[in-house]
Amino acid sequence: MMHFIGFNREEEAEKWARKQIGIEHPVGFFRAISAVDEHDKFACVAVMTNFTSRNIDINVAIKDINVVSPREAVLMFNEIFSYAFDTLRATRVTSLSRGKNVKANKFIEHIGFKPEGVMRRAFKDDDLNIYGFLAEEYYSHAWYRGKKWIKTQF
Description:
The chain is of the alpha+beta class. The protein has helices at residues 10-21, 70-87, 102-110, 135-138; strands at 2-6, 31-37, 42-49, 55-62, 92-98, 114-123, 126-134. A 7-stranded mixed β-sheet has the order 1-2-3-4-5-7-6, sandwiched between helices.
């Protein structure tokens, strides 16, 4: 069972996510939305970085996919996408994933991202998949909670 904690414990969450994903260096400015398990340990963390007026990069680290129920995942991603699209008015969110991480790639597509390309040999031993999720896709997707959308942001 997972308990959503939002933006609480951001620095700790970002460090945990980097370790789970395998990123060695701090990411600079970030926001981290997270959830913990029944033992108050991180279960799922989404780290948003590289903010521009149009795009936000997002990396998601999950301790164990079996810990995250569909209901809890919906709550988590409602908050992530609401923050990116409703609060920050981003046009798109970008997610990057190692090519060999089949489970992560399947999950990224399941939550609404569309494959956009592959950076071949981005890592010494792997490629990097690029995914995008546009604001207009969010507003017609199940993650959207029905807030009034103003089209003038595009």
